[in-house]
Amino acid sequence: MRVITLLAAALCMTMQAQDLNLASFEQVWNTIRETHWQERPGGLDWPAIRAEYRPRVIAARSTDEARTVIQEMLSRLGQTHFGIMGGAAALDLGEVGNANATSPGSAVTGMEIRVLGSEIVVTSVEPASPAALVGVRPGWVVRRIGDRSLQLNAIAQLPEYVVTHAVESRLSGPLGSALAIEFDTGSDTASGKLTLTLNLAPGRGVLASFGNLPPTRVAYESRRLPDNIAYVRLNVFLDLPRVIPAFDKSIRDCAPCAGVILDLRGNPGGIAGMASSMAGFLFREMTPELGTMHTRDAQLKFAINPRANAFTGPVAVLIDGGSASTSEILAGGLQDLGRARIFGTRSAAAALPSIITRLPNGDLFQYAIAHYVSRSGKELEGSGVTPDEEVKLTRVGLLAGHDAVLEAAQNWIRSKQ
Amino acid sequence: MKLTRRLAITLLGLLPLHAADLPTAESILDRYVAVTGGKAAYDGHRSEVVRGSIEIVAAGIKGTLVRYSSGGMSRMTMELPGIGAIDGGYRDGVGWQDSLLTGPRLVDGSELAESKKNATLHPEFRWRELYSKAETVAEETVNGEACYKIVMTAEGVSPESWFLSKDTGLIVKVATTTTSPQGTIAVDGIASDYKEFGGVRLPTKMISKLAGQEIVMTFDSFEYNTDIPTARFSLPEGVAALVKK
Q1: Between β-strands B61-70 and B73-80, what pairing exists: parallel, antiparallel or unpaired?
Q2: How many CB atoms lie within 10 A of CB A249?
Q3: Closest CA to A63 of A24, A97, A31, A99
Q4: What is the pTM (predicted TM-score) of this model?
Q5: Which residues from chain B sit within 8 angstroms of residue A283, using beta carbons?
Q6: A27, A276, A281, A364, best to mutate vs chain B, most B CBs in 10 Å
Q7: pLDDT band at A156 (very low <50, low <70, confident <90, very high)
Q8: In what order do the strands lie in the sheet with A259-263?
Q9: Which of A243, B1, B29, B95 could be a cystine partner for B107, CB 3.0 to 4.6 Å?
Q10: What is the CA radius of gyration of chain B?
């Protein structure tokens, strides 16, 4: 009797999960039907899509399976900023359909990585971080994390920002946990392979929350480079109450400086309005908008309100394939307005304003609500921001201690003096 | 075919609107004042403090709001987690906004006219002072409720459509367009959950839809005739500096 009761309870839970998954599917499908800026989302027959995927969600034997079906439906749109986050997000390269399927762990290695060619290369190491403590150096290639090697064919096939975020997720974990990483150090000795164990520690920056977004560490860095050049770096556009006053101070402190470098490499976006807000500190007079987002029934300009203490000297913005969304809105708009010179490599081409909401089954659902057109009339989704000066990081340069992108920006500002 | 369609449209334009069959806007709006408390109750209010919450439902963002109004001056502050304070107001012909998103800003044109109008206590009661024209144009159903649609026209701002229930006489929807540096955006607001404060029944919930987003404002309290220090309406430092320019 007790077994039957247990089975009944288990069955009941399964049916409840099924109902929640179906309700989640309906919410996702309806949201896109009601809010997508195209009458036929992604050019698709949306009712036909429902007829195709609904039975598969009903037949799904687990929430993971239902999530995969919903994610597959979203991928049919062929547009960024549509995704499901939930459960044990698939972290293996090749399984990751979008960057948002990963969520940052509570502790990290303290090293930044980027995709250079078909390799994952360390581009910087935070002082006193776990990576610094064991001697990791920029230019080293990450070959294996824990017991998983990185699939080079997947790296080559996926967008750079998707790969970067997936690898970053694998480089994070619970505070104090140990992570064995195999590097190719580029050394001539033996094979150059070296396996180091890093004890993960809290990342730099402040943990910030915003709506349904998972808590995220926001790191704002401001320092002065040689020749009186101000350098500002932001890893994500969140924590507006802390970041905007900090940017205000950086600009005020810069009153006599030769130029400002805004480093948005690896910045995946965040609160879209922060692009307009930060742009305001770079204009003293009324100026046109950065661009316009188009929903199904409205057009919203990313207007710039000039600030009294705005900096009017040369501005360089650094971007790469990890610079997405708000980063692209800001960099692309400043480029179109002739206010900044852009250095680095082409941005992620993922610039759709979006919202993250919670589904009945507990998963998070990110959906784009508009498409975005930069000031010049260019749609950044799918094309990205093309730098004025394309500069690529190289492993050789990193091993020699050079950041070629930053140096190019510094040289340009010096040339303006 | 095209010619037939054009002719049909032209003929449609010639059809009578039957406006004469509809009650006058004046009678509908007077009824609103009567069913929500009456002239004497409205006339007795000299100042207002509104407290409540604001929620962007889909994004999971919820914050607070407080609004002060007195003597043709107003100030409203919203606090949203992750965004900070969004402040705005009107006094002595100056309309302004200030937030970390925009920085201090003076408003002008239709934004200024809108700020001035919104600084008036109970605009629905004082509509004769604020609007140059009020016209009943149709009967429409709002959320299953039969309503009269009144177009309210005021100088310098976009026309507003007010929908008042034929049954209760209450305002159930306001549709308008609002202008800001972001552009001109259509806003539909559904008013509900009327409760009595200071002898007047007021909607305590407003669900606004704009640019595909739903924003819910819930008003917990309306306090009347409390002494609001004039300093409450002072311009923030950054705004005052713009006025001096």
Answers
A1: antiparallel
A2: 12
A3: A24
A4: 0.86
A5: none
A6: A276
A7: low
A8: A220-225, A229-234, A259-263, A315-319, A341-344, A389-390
A9: B95
A10: 20
